[in-house]
């Protein structure tokens, strides 16, 4: 008889946990996955997927205004139904949730719709009190939105609740300076809300190239989004009329209808019992793992946002695949965290891969930077003064392209191919030798001087 109930017990059925479960089961392992909310995790249920659908919806605001320049007779103003978009987005989330569930079922993975906590190196306890044993445990429980500790913080919402808003706020204050804050700032602005973005520091989108993020700040300000910097939260008061008065350091109080906290994410390890099993956590509560995703307890592994390495869905999926292939597929695999592309679906979007100019100058010393600052053809005919900016950062000694950074229409779609080029170690001469695809925005990549 088997010594354990399962070969692998996975905590969390998000993108990473689902991939690890499916692949491990395909390799012949007996697998169970416990999910206390819905199969699909943050990305599918309350993150990347529904947010990107809102981004698509928001883009119609500008497209419809521009359409008249292209000969279309579009009423001005056009009416917008938040409830229609919201409900259609949630219906698509339900569809994908069903697809993820079906994938696990097809691979004979036992789905346990309960919270599970670790009670030992090989045991977990479910919410109903039953215990399960497994030769290995994989922690893939992700992260949750961090909320500032200030009086009245309970009056705000996070990205978990934003998709369920009963109506659009007329005025919204978004706290944070990262990608979630800037994406929702663009979304709500295009839907007609007055948006104020409050950041506790003076820097937006830390980690992205300085010129690119400065361009986003310039464009966003021109569009009417307000910014408050050095604006740590002091408190939120809720009036009898439901309005929220937000008190910020170094600024006058702001009255809004909604406060959205986008102030970072923290690993979901609290109350999970990991310390009792000998799993070491870092100062933020993330599981410490080695290159093979193994924790300090030999039978317990962790992947995805709960490890706080790179909080991106494709990275979690790669880690889940690598874990399953290594442990159950006799195919030792490690994840290469170099040249991971990233995008911010702001208005306009920005994207980058590789070293920023500042990073390259610090690490390489000799650096050459090429750029193209241009007005996309569509914007010209539409009478829109919004400009795109592409940057290529090269090693000054070898001509190798070490980073590409962009802001403008469709750049997230373009950066994926750029990531292949940067990871392959192509040179500026390789780009120059490639014939341009005209007319396109992407042709600027091979024309930069």
Automatic annotation (TrEMBL):
EC number, as in UniProt: 1.8.1.7
Record keyword Oxidoreductase present: yes
FAD/NAD(P)-binding domain segment(s): 6-320
Pfam families for this protein: Pyr_redox_2, Pyr_redox_dim
Reported cofactor(s): FAD
Keywords: Disulfide bond, FAD, Flavoprotein, Oxidoreductase, Redox-active center
Domain (Pyridine nucleotide-disulphide oxidoreductase dimerisation): residue spans on this chain: 340-448
PROSITE patterns given in the database record: PYRIDINE_REDOX_1
GO molecular function: glutathione-disulfide reductase (NADPH) activity
InterPro entries found in the cross-reference section: FAD/NAD-bd_sf (IPR036188), FAD/NAD-binding_dom (IPR023753), FAD/NAD-linked_Rdtase_dimer_sf (IPR016156), GSHR/TRXR-like (IPR046952), Pyr_nuc-diS_OxRdtase (IPR001100), Pyr_nucl-diS_OxRdtase_dimer (IPR004099), Pyr_OxRdtase_I_AS (IPR012999)
Family statement drawn from the similarity comment of this UniProt entry: Belongs to the class-I pyridine nucleotide-disulfide oxidoreductase family.
Protein name: Glutathione-disulfide reductase
Organism: Sphingomonas mollis
Gene label: gorA
